[in-house]
Amino acid sequence: MLSTFGQIAGRPQLLILALMIFAQGSAFGATIPYLSVTAIGTLGMSDQAYSVLVIVSSISAVTISVSLGILSDMLGDRRHMLIAMAALGVVGYGAIYFFPSVPVFLGSTSLVIPFFYATSSLLFASARLETGDLEPAEAASINATLRAIVSAAWVLTPAGLGLALGASGTMIGAWGLASLFCLFILICATFFLKSPPSRLPRDTSGPGFGAALRELAARDMLIRMVSIAAITSTLRLSGTIWPLILTLQLGGKTADVGLIAGMTALIEIPFMLMWAHLLKRHSIIGIIVTAALGYGAYMVALAFASAPWHIYVLTLPGAAFAAALLALPLNYFQDLFPGRPGLGTAFLPINSFLGNGVNAAAFAIGSHFLGYSGTAWLGLVLAVLGVAGLLSVERRVARAA
Q1: Model confidence over 285-332: pLDDT tens digits?
Q2: Quick check: 193 and 13 in contact, CB under 8 A?
Q3: How many distinct structural domains can be found in the chain?
């Protein structure tokens, strides 16, 4: 790993991208762990309204991110896109901080902040290009390290915010901090990130926008996307319900939410590197399947939690399996389109969209009929269904090959 960090430090543009990825992870880490608690507990939004918000914001995010990902392959210049998306992040997060209310929260979260979400695919696509001249093993190690940097951001930001703001009873300040992280990305993209030296002539032999969309809509690709989304939706479902179980059912404090989120991210970092090392000896499909079933078992354990310390104990196995489900799907999809990082990385927002949709439906149904603890059982169901779909398509493709 020292050589990997040396590769990042020795490439100025890759180092800048790593810092921007850290800032973006910090913006997410400042707000996502407190999203349901703030919307439902602080602003008084209903469970059903929160579920609708998740769906609407997911539709916005996937439409924007996929379009920009495909266009970035066609145009080749991601810098100006990053500048615009970061600026909207400053506005969206800042509006919630300065004008905390349900209408502002709804508008910013569903219409403005999804533009900032697009920076994730743009940054990782840019990083993929920066490693294009390296050996595949070295590039994979750098990509895994960059993904671990996101978790490192989650170690510092949520825990620090939980300690700093937990006693106040509101986490609105987290959105102000997220706005500052967006400002940092804006400054880096504007003054330090390089644009292509010249506008290259468009490659007319490559697929156009419509053709790229049709590739995404192919049958096997759809099965892959839905299956991976079902698997990773367990992470989103867990992230939605365990803070509610902790604070509303078990008597935990808001500060506990930040501490557990930080602990989870800290544990994920070495496990991400471990899973990446195991790729040398095991298939990526086998690792994803193992992690999915393990995380399903973790969700079942959440259902039996009866004291705050139970949530703390479950952090270790949950983070271990979550590390694989966070780090590997992006590489899995990028490898399907090795020459088009924008299209390959476009699967990241698609997966988020589908996963958020499944999460929203599961949360709405589960919270209404089963309660927060009962909803955890749906995580196991989703993991099993996702594994079955993924194995079926991979076996069919292998037989055809």
Answers
A1: 899 999 999 999 999 998 888 888 888 999 999 999 999 998 888 878
A2: yes
A3: 1
- In three-state secondary structure terms, 279 is coil
Residue 203 in any domain: the answer is no
| Cα R_g (the chain), whole angstroms | 20
Q: 301: burial class by Cβ within 10 Å (0-12, 13-18, 19+)? A: middle
Q: Which residue has the tokens 């009866």?
A: 306
Question: Which range, of 39-43, 89-93, 206-210, 300-304, averages the lowest pLDDT?
Answer: 206-210
DSSP string, 160-220: HHHHHHGGGT--THHHHHHHHHHHHHHHHHHHTSPPPSS-PPP-TTS--HHHHHHHHTSHH
Is 215 part of any domain? yes
Cα atoms in the 13 Å half-sphere on the side-chain side of 121: 34
| Model pTM above 0.70 | yes
Residue 96 resides in a domain: yes
Is residue 75 within 8 A of residue 88, CB to CB? The reply is: no
Output the domain CATH number for residue 329: 1.20.1250.20
Range of the domain at 290: 9-193+209-400
Query: CB-based burial of residue 398 (10 Å sphere; 0-12 exposed, 13-18 middle, 19+ buried)?
Result: exposed
Is residue 204 domain-resident?
Answer: no
- Residue 10 identity (one-letter amino acid): G
